[in-house]
Each structure stands twice: as C-alpha cells, then as structure tokens.
Amino acid sequence: MTRLVVISNRVAAPTGSHSGAQGGLAVALQAALNEYGGLWFGWSGEETEAFTGTPEIVEGGYTMATVDLEPQDVEEYYEGYANRTLWPLFHYRVDLTEYERSFAGGYNRVNERFADSVFPLLRADDAIWIQDYHMIPLGAELRRRGCAQRMGFFLHIPWPPRRLLTTLPEAAELVRTLLAYDVVGFHTQEWLDSFLDYAREDLGAAFKDGVLSLDGRSVRLLACPIGIDAAEFREMARSPRARLSYRQMRDSATGRDMIVGVDRLDYSKGLEERFLGYERFLMHHPEERKELFLLQIAPPSRATVETYQRIRTSLEGLAGRINGAFADIDWVPIRYVNQGYARDMLAGIYRAAKIGLVTPLRDGMNLVAKEYVAAQDPEDPGVLILSRFAGAAEQMTEALLINPHSAEEMSDAIYQALRMPRDERIDRWRALMAGVEREDVVWWRKRFTDALLSAGPVHGGFNAMA
Ligand code: ADQ
C-alpha cells in the first residue's frame, strides 16, 4: 500500500506531544498522518558537531525520522536563508531581507543533506509531500538521486510579486527547482498568480489548463487553502478547560468587552499597527474607552534573529506607552502576554472575546482567524476583523475586512463590531462558520493529495487516502 511521506523542516512526534513544531501546520499534518500512517521526516531541532545523515526513528501512529544539523547549517540554512532571506522577502519585506551568499550556500547544502538522509527510507510507491519554504529545492535533489515517486510541494507562506522576487540573486534557480515536483500548491490564487507571473515573464514558462511547462518538465499548480480541524475545535471550545478559561476571562473582564489577538511574535503579523489602530480607537471614542480592553497573546518566536528582538522591544514600548497614556486605577487598555497556551484554553479565550482582531500585514493563510470563528457561541458570536492581506481574506469575505496599515480603518472596524446588532453578528458568523467547516483541514489535505495522486501512475492503495 502506498505510504504518505511528509517532509518538513520541523516535525511533531507521533505520540501527540509536539517536539518543537510550531502552530497550525504541525496540527494539520499530524491529523493526516495519524489517520493514515506514514513517514514524517525533518530536522530534529537539535545540533550536532558532525552531521551523520542517519535519522533517529520514533514509531507511533506514524514513523517520525529526524536528523540533527551542524551549528553552521542551523546558522546559514535556518536562521539565515529561511528566516532572514526567504521569510521577509516572501512577506514583501525587502527592507528586512538579507542577501548573503553563505546563506544560499547553506540552504542548498542542508537540502542536499536532507535528500541524502531521507532517500534510503523511501519506497518506490511512496507519495512524497514536501512542505514549505525551507525545502524548496529538496524535490530536485531527490530527483537527482533517482527518485521517480510522485512528489508534491506546498508553500505555507505568500509568494511575492515578481518585482520583489527579482531582488533575490538565486530567484531563477530556486523557481526552476520547483519544476521537479508534480504538484505545487499555494494557499490562494493571488500567491499562485504571482508565481506564474515570474515563471512566465522571467523564465519563459508556458501555462495551460493549470499546468506549467518549462525545460521539458510540467508541474500542476494548485490553489489549496489550508483549514483547521473545525469539528475538533468546536468541540474543544465546549471542553471543561475551555469553559474554565472562558469563565476566567469573563470574570477578569468585569463586564467589559474583550478584543483578542493571538499571534506568534512576528513582524508579518502587524502587531505594532494593531496597537496603533487600537490606540486610534481609544483616542476617537473616549466614551467607549473603558468599555473594552485588548488582550494580545504573542509568544516569542525566532528569538535569535535580530529583527525579532527589535519587534519585541518595540511592542513592549508601544504597549507601555498606550497603557501609560490611557490606563486608570480600575482599567488597563492592553493586556500584553508573551506566552503560549494549550489549544483548549485558547478556544475558551477566543469564545470570551467579542472581537477577534487578526490583522497581519501579509500572511499565507492565518489559522487564528478560522479558530476564532470555530470557537464562537452560535447564539452570541463575536465579530472577526480580518486583514485584507491575509490569505484567509479570500475565503472569509463576511468578516470585517480592513487594511491593517490604516489605523483609521482599524478604529472604525472596532467601533462597527462593538455596535453590530446580534442578528448581523449571527448572519456573518454562520456564513463564516459554514466555510470553516466545509473547507477544513481534511478538505485541504484531500484536495492536495488528490491532485498528487492524479499526477502520476497510481501504485497500490493510495486511493485509501481519499
Ligand atoms: P503561522 O505564521 O504560525 O503559520 P497561523 O496560521 O496563524 O500562523 O498559525 C498559528 C498557530 O499557532 C495557530 O494554530 C494558533 O492557535 C497557534 N498559536 C499562536 N499563538 C499561540 C499561543 N500563544 N498559544 C498557543 N497557540 C498559539 C504559517 C503561515 C500561515 C499559515 C500556516 C499554516 O505563516 O499563514 O496559515 O503556516 O499553513
């Protein structure tokens, strides 16, 4: 029977405990692998003095195989090319992008190392699904080693506009490696179109019926928005721990309305702009001011990278300034917390919030927007305020869509959400929830694997995944 092989930078253990894997992607992939078994390969998150290439194997609902990397690998591949070159560039932040040849060299070296390590674990009839920007050239490396299996790639972050991508010295090379796959998936049509624009205009690729052709290779392009496990999340919102965190939030709110933001501490999430938009609201609506507060949960990520240290300092300053200017003896406008919470507790917190403020400057998808909707009380749902620049905005058109750069738009949307009649809140929520449930994580996985399956000859029982 054909196995699903998932390859991504970080992996989560099959026991259910996360081994450092972050966020929604880990949850989504774990669900797929747990259901069907298979192999998940990636970096352990650990360092070693000398790379061995021999993966450590952990068996459970699926097989987890991980390798350690050398310190120089981590510096150039992970902290360098992934976090300081591709992440900012693909989020349109050319101003923060670092163009270092050593980073590009390290990135290619580590992808070669991953290919060497995983190659012996592969079977002829595997279907291989490679995830995200850390591993763009891995498919090409595997093909070079003789892999003929079906291979797909999914990008979890935006694809930048052509003019921005051309600032990357290795752009053409990187894009050509994507031709090694049978299917390449993006969250939205917009990211797909940007990719297509570059491939056609700069490389002379042809495109017909969803298939891109270049240099004698063809690859199917797919817009495939990731979802959440909506049913699980809805249930979780009613669990005892969620009810407890819901009550704690309601009690501590003392009758005030809560706005919630939940994000990794990352400059792409628009946290500074969010604080400024909320500040604008406080300035423009003094009569409403003490009726609400903002809870911003932002666990630090990538703390060794300087741009992340800078944003952390800047946010602390901004929260301090706003609280200093507006707080009263019985009220603080911003509660700013830097820790992670268990998912069921998060569900209770979402449910207690009258407004979900999800305002990234650029985001591949954004799962928090979907989680917020799934956690709401159907009889008295809160209002989602969502950035137009999140991939999620393509699906979630019944949210209050705003430009996150505009403090005024944000302030107006907060006001509109606070005043929104219950009937309208219910109507909008029902439409949003229908989408979150219809296009959930199972739908996403199936849409991608179906495309991967139909891309090549069917071996064995891969159909069991459908
Ligand atoms: P991220 O940038 O990590 O993901 P997002 O999609 O919002 O962004 O997922 C974050 C996840 O982390 C959510 O599931 C959220 O609940 C969780 N989380 C955040 N803060 C938390 C906290 N304090 N405690 C506990 N959990 C917390 C990348 C892309 C996104 C894309 C996903 C999946 O940047 O655009 O949606 O991958 O493809």
Helix/strand layout:
Elements: E1 4-10, H1 23-36, E2 39-47, E3 56-59, E4 63-69, H2 71-90, H3 101-118, E5 127-131, H4 138-144, E6 150-154, H5 162-165, H6 171-177, E7 183-186, H7 189-201, E8 206-208, E9 211-214, E10 217-223, H8 230-236, H9 240-253, E11 257-262, H10 271-284, E12 292-297, H11 306-326, E13 334-337, H12 343-352, E14 355-358, H13 367-374, E15 383-387, E16 400-402, H14 407-419, H15 422-438, H16 441-455
Parallel strand pairs: 1-2, 1-5, 2-4, 5-6, 6-7, 7-10, 11-12, 11-14, 12-13, 14-15, 15-16
Antiparallel strand pairs: 3-4, 8-9, 9-10
Helix pairs in contact: 2-3, 3-4, 9-12, 10-11, 10-14
The structure holds adenosine-5'-diphosphate-glucose (ADQ).
Structural write-up:
The protein is 43% helix and 18% strand. The protein is built from 16 helices and 16 strands. The protein is an alpha/beta fold and 466 residues long. Helix 2 (71-90) crosses helix 3. It has a ten-stranded mixed sheet with strand order 3-4-2-1-5-6-7-10-9-8, sandwiched between helices. Strands 13-12-11-14-15-16 form a six-stranded parallel sheet, sandwiched between helices. The chain is globular, with a radius of gyration of 22 Å. It has two domains: 4-227 and 443-460, Glycogen Phosphorylase B (Rossmann fold, 3-Layer(aba) Sandwich); 230-438, Rossmann fold (3-Layer(aba) Sandwich). Helix 4 (138-144) links the parallel strand 5 and strand 6. Adenosine-5'-diphosphate-glucose (ADQ) binds next to helix 1 and helix 13.
